[in-house]
Specification:
Distance between the termini: 63 Å
Strand content: 25-35%
Largest sheet: 9 strands, mixed
Shape: globular
Structural class: alpha/beta
Strand order of the largest sheet: 2-5-8-11-16-19-22-23-24
Order of helices and strands: HEEEEEEEEEEEEEEEEEEEEEEEEH
Helix content: 10-25%
Length: 251
């Protein structure tokens, strides 16, 4: 009887492994088939979608695509919302409302809500669950529910080369310069100069770059060492091994 139980147990375990492999293969196929690219846009008809750009599946809410321009080689994570206009099926005029430059990365679960002009510069990277919006609720009338009052809209401009940390919020009217770092969870409004680090809610500048003095206050970690030319991926992996103190050539 024990042998029969062992046989049934082994068969059940084999079936579970086989089912798990089949589910994972099927999900990978669904993800690949559901991804949106310039060659395979599916139902989405963006004003522009550049070469090498990919929207991972499943996508979040997407509407107003004719007024959305995506540059080349952008990476749009799963469940990312991209909207132009207050609601679907509006005529927003001849110009784009939401524009992403080349090489923009939007992490999983991020939202970009563009009821008026929103521009994200090239090579800007956003962590997961970043929220960028050109619209905010107004609460002028104390007797009317906030959600039923007409919202205020102001354009948003994010310069090239920025890094926006997980869970950050970029509010209407925000203007970020070049290579700005936004700390995780920060709430940004107003203007942020080039090469600044901002943190907090509301966000304030906590570090900035001075051409003569460098970073002020100074960085607490040593500057990264550039990777020498000619180093192969295999050599980099070898260097990363614990206890390996040899150089790239093994000397």
């Amino acid at each position: 009887m024990a042998k029969n139980r062992n046989a049934f147990s082994s068969l059940a375990a084999w079936r579970r492994r086989a089912l798990s492999r089949a589910v994972h293969r099927g999900w990978r196929w669904v993800q690949e088939s559901g991804a949106v690219t310039a060659e395979h846009p599916g139902r989405l008809r963006f004003g522009r979608i550049g070469e090498g750009t990919r929207l991972a599946f499943p996508q979040g809410t997407v509407f107003g695509e004719p007024w959305i321009e995506l540059g080349a080689h952008c990476v749009i994570g799963e469940q990312v919302t991209l909207t132009a206009g207050l609601m679907p099926d509006l005529d927003l005029g001849p110009e784009s409302i939401l524009t992403l430059g080349d090489g923009v990365v939007l992490g999983r679960g991020s939202h970009v809500v563009a009821d008026t002009k929103v521009t994200i510069g090239s090579d800007t990277y956003c962590g997961p669950y970043v929220y960028i919006t050109s619209t905010n609720h107004s609460y002028d009338d104390p007797h009317e529910p906030v959600g039923r009052q007409w919202p205020r809209m102001e354009p948003v401009a994010i310069g090239p080369g920025c890094w926006i940390g997980t869970g950050a919020v970029i509010l209407p009217g925000a203007v970020l310069g070049r290579n700005v770092v936004v700390a995780a969870g920060a709430v940004v409004r107003g203007e942020v100069p080039d090469h600044a680090v901002v943190a907090g809610a509301p966000a304030r500048v906590v570090r900035s770059w001075d051409p003569e003095k460098g970073w002020q206050p100074p960085l607490r970690t040593p500057a990264p060492v550039p990777i020498p030319s000619g180093i192969t991926p295999e050599q980099l992996l070898a260097l990363a091994e614990p206890g390996d103190t040899s150089g790239p050539s093994g000397d």
